[in-house]
Amino acid sequence: MTKSDLVNEIAIKTGLDKIVVQETVETFFRVVKNSMAGGQNIYIRGFGTFQVKKRAAKKARNIQKNTTINITEHFVPKFKPSKEFIDRVKNAQLYPDMEE
């Protein structure tokens, strides 16, 4: 599902205009990105948590040039789904036409 598909589905289910839904979705993404860039985690009950994780500095290898590269400590975004979310996906029939 693409962002456009998401906007269309929300517009159909809510009866709202697609332009309003698109602005809302874009604003949501912008708020999530800006908050996480500022070091804040976002907790959405029943859905999951958008977390900022710290990666420690480490040494890596460039195999082609046979050199060592120092990677500085940095932060990466991470999404951790809620137990409810995990259970919903786990128990869903994702491919009902496939036989086990």
Describe this structure in words.
- With 100 residues, the protein is an alpha+beta fold.
- The chain has two domains: 1-40; 41-92, IHF-like DNA-binding proteins (HU Protein, Chain A, Irregular).
- It is 40% helix and 29% strand.
- The chain has three helices and five strands; from the N terminus they run H-H-E-E-E-E-E-H.
- A three-stranded antiparallel sheet has the order 1-2-5. A two-stranded antiparallel ribbon has the order 3-4.
- Helix 1 packs across helix 2.
- It is elongated.
Concise structural overview:
The chain folds into two domains: 1-40; 41-92, IHF-like DNA-binding proteins (HU Protein, Chain A, Irregular). Helix content is 40%, strand content 29%.
**In the CATH hierarchy, what is the superfamily of the largest domain?**
IHF-like DNA-binding proteins
In the CATH hierarchy, the third-tier topology of the largest domain is known as: HU Protein, Chain A
Helix-strand pattern, N to C? HHEEEEEH
Got a strand count? Answer: 5
Approximate shape: elongated
Radius of gyration: 20 Å
Q: Tell me the count of domains.
A: 2
Strand content: 25-35%
Task: Return the CATH architecture of the largest domain.
Answer: Irregular
Overall mean pLDDT score? Answer: 92
Distance between the termini: 25 Å
Percentage of helical residues? 40-55%
CATH class of the largest domain: Few Secondary Structures
Q: How are the SSEs placed, and which strands pair?
A:
Elements: H1 3-14, H2 18-37, E1 42-44, E2 48-55, E3 58-62, E4 67-71, E5 74-81, H3 83-90
Antiparallel strand pairs: 1-2, 2-5, 3-4
